[in-house]
Amino acid sequence: MSEELTTGPMELNVGFIGGGNMAYALASGFLNKGVLAAESIWVSATNLEKLRNRWSPLGVTNISTDNREVAAKTTIVFICVKPQIFPEIVEDIKFAYNRDPSFKKYVSIMAGVTLDHLQKSLPFLDEDFLLRAMPNTPIQVGVGCTVFCRPPSSPKDVLYRDVEYLFESIGLAYEVKESQMDAVTGLAGCGPAYVYEFIEALADGGVKQGIPRDMALKLAAQTVMGAAKTVLDTGKHPAVLKDEVCSPGGATIHGVHALEQGSMRSTVMNAVERATERAAQLS
Questions:
Q1: How far apart are CA 98 and CA 151, in angstroms?
Q2: Residues 156-189: pLDDT tens digits?
Q3: Model confidence at 112, in pLDDT bands (50, 70, 90)?
Q4: Fewer CB within 10 Å, N or C, the chain?
Q5: Rounded to whole angstroms, how far apart are CA atoms 132 and 113?
Q6: For residues 179 and 175, what is the distance between their CA atoms, to the nearest angstrom?
């Protein structure tokens, strides 16, 4: 990352067309990490009361039902609507562009909407100003994953440094080929749901053995978080770390055997495969 980007709020305005869960997660992450100030965030959606109830506690006051206002007054615009809504906002983006055709970046987080589709829908925009991204919901607590791609002809230069900086502030960020987006969706985009299922099951197992539910849930979540951090911080392969926990004839290896009998690894791999296939269908 360029040394030109320093800590503290960035001096730019960021807009969200669509104020749903992912837009809220992005904004929450940026605010929690201090890379954006609340007054530099703009958001629009159709239900003004719902927007205010959800976004005002974040300190965001630039709340509107006017997509054109958000696009016109910001430098980076996140397109966070459902794909079927996208055609309805194209004219709003075009209006804002005609009003101020100066440098502005549009980042789509719409599932299944390809760069080619974006370019054909927004032909008046320079393709260098288009980006497609797939974040996951843990970005709201600063430990998310975001992958992004851009048109093949787009150069990697200063145009993208501020967007990349934003993504890196809230977790891991990787630039990938667009052909990899569906697989990353199946792994990292959908992955939190798989992990939540595992945490719940781990806690239920503790409850079955007599641990109070609140304690079991916290122990399960902390165990998962600790194990994940160990993988990232040590750089060791999970199999190596697993073997370090499994004493000969001990309790852990008996538990691991039970997981193998239940085909846990195969089931998780199948989940990633199914989610990837569905992401491809949506495209």
A1: 23
A2: 665 578 899 999 999 999 999 999 999 999 999 9
A3: confident
A4: N
A5: 8
A6: 12
